[in-house]
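Here is the promised in-class demo. Please do not try to memorize the tokens; focus on the logic of going from shape to residues.
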């Protein structure tokens, strides 16, 4: 099924507000928590998509994390100026943490990726947790100016479209029936 490419009203208002990054933080947080077994999400398609999105953001591989293997996902928005801080506990007892820096209109600045990475690594020092770093933008293309910053700091860089293409790989894409999820992931942010 082809998903209609329509402009999303989710991110729009009548002003020129620049609050898209806050919406991204909240929605990524919710999406990633939907992958966990403790999420109480009954919509199996939504849970599967959320698991694949989590797998892309952590491992850059849509099938590295299998459905049902995520026990708990905890998130913190804007903690220590980090856009999204994610902890994942797997059913086998292993743990991962993911730092996500997201952008809507602005570019990276002031060595922020390195500063956030240092805070993150200091927190997890001497803990048995796999650390992962992702940069996420809703821009159509990765901003050329940001790519060297991501490479230098060891962040995997993604656009919204890249995430969509990766998490839907090999699937007959269908809407989930959850209006918020479908609006965020399957419409154009214009």
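The designed amino acids, position by position:
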């Amino acid at each position: 099924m082809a998903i209609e490419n329509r402009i999303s009203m989710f991110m729009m208002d009548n002003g020129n507000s620049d609050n898209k990054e806050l919406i991204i933080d909240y929605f990524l947080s919710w999406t990633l928590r939907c992958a966990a077994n403790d999420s109480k999400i009954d919509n199996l398609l939504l849970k599967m998509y959320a698991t694949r999105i989590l797998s892309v953001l952590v491992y850059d591989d849509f099938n590295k994390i299998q459905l049902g293997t995520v026990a708990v996902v905890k998130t913190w928005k804007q903690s220590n100026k980090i856009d999204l801080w994610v902890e994942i506990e797997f059913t086998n007892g292993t743990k991962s943490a993911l730092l996500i820096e997201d952008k809507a209109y602005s570019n990276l600045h002031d060595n922020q990726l390195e500063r956030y990475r240092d805070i993150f690594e200091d927190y997890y020092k001497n803990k048995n947790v796999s650390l992962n770093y992702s940069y996420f933008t809703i821009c159509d293309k990765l901003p050329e100016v940001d790519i060297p910053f991501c490479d230098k700091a060891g962040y995997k860089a993604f656009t919204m479209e890249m995430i969509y293409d990766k998490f839907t790989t090999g699937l007959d894409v269908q809407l989930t029936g959850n209006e918020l999820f479908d609006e965020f992931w399957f419409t154009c942010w214009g």
